[in-house]
Amino acid sequence: MTDRTAPDYDLADGLALDSPEQYKALFEPTRREIVSLLLDRAATTSELAELLGKPKGTIGSHLKNLEQAGLVRVVRTRRVRALEAKYYGRTARVFWFESVDGAAGEAARQLRQAADEAARVVDPQEQVMTGAVRYARIPGARAQEWTDRLHRLLDEFDREPRSGEQAYGLVVGLYPADVPRLAVDTAAPDDSGHDGAATR
């Protein structure tokens, strides 16, 4: 298989959703699947319908909805016999959104979906997989810095040339965690290297 950059059409780096219509269009399960698939390459209504196992009319309606919201567009056409096939692509690599309306709970939904997918791996010993959770008590500003770093990592992964047969999922998440906290250790060493108890 030849290396190629994904997707196979030009698009903006990012688009901030700014209307109820865009939120309503994007945060519907089938439409989320469509825009996710289009990040790999442009596709026709027929291709998407076959892959998703849904009628062409249903996928066509979803594409029209996404197109009217400015989230997908026709990126090229090709003559197939007497018909002109339209290839749809996203308008941006990343759709930025606030956690409101239909997007409320979206991050948690994506983490649950990733956990379900990982659990379905038939033989984890034969897969390149890793998973870990760490907890740190940090200020909110540092949490935002980590969030930005994770988004940059996702973007790098999105841009990886498509040359393999196996798809891999990269999961990132940063969230407030309700974990127990140890009390302050009053006997902990101070900066001088001595323990906290005074000796006389």
Fold and architecture overview:
This is Transcriptional regulator, TrmB. Keywords: DNA-binding, Transcription, Transcription regulation. InterPro entries: ArsR-like_HTH (IPR011991), HTH_ArsR_DNA-bd_dom (IPR001845), HTH_MetalResp_TranReg (IPR051081), WH-like_DNA-bd_sf (IPR036388), WH_DNA-bd_sf (IPR036390). One of its GO terms (molecular function) is DNA-binding transcription factor activity. It comes from Nakamurella multipartita (strain ATCC 700099 / DSM 44233 / CIP 104796 / JCM 9543 / NBRC 105858 / Y-104). This protein is an alpha+beta fold. It has two domains: about 1-105, Winged helix-like DNA-binding domain superfamily/Winged helix DNA-binding domain (Arc Repressor Mutant, subunit A), CATH 1.10.10; about 120-200, no CATH class. The protein is built from six helices and four strands. The chain has helices at about 20-25, 30-35, 45-50, 55-70, 105-120, 140-160, and strands at about 10-15, 70-80, 85-90, 90-95. The chain has a two-stranded parallel ribbon. It has a two-stranded antiparallel sheet with strand order 2-3. The radius of gyration is 23 Å and the shape is elongated. The model is unreliable at about 195-200 (pLDDT under 50).
Tell me the layout of helices and strands:
Layout: E1 12-16, H1 20-26, H2 29-37, H3 45-52, H4 56-68, E2 72-80, E3 83-90, E4 92-96, H5 106-119, H6 140-158
Parallel strand pairs: 1-4
Antiparallel strand pairs: 2-3
Helix pairs in contact: 3-4
Domain HTH arsR-type: 11-115
Organism: Nakamurella multipartita (strain ATCC 700099 / DSM 44233 / CIP 104796 / JCM 9543 / NBRC 105858 / Y-104) (Microsphaera multipartita)
GO molecular function: DNA binding; DNA-binding transcription factor activity
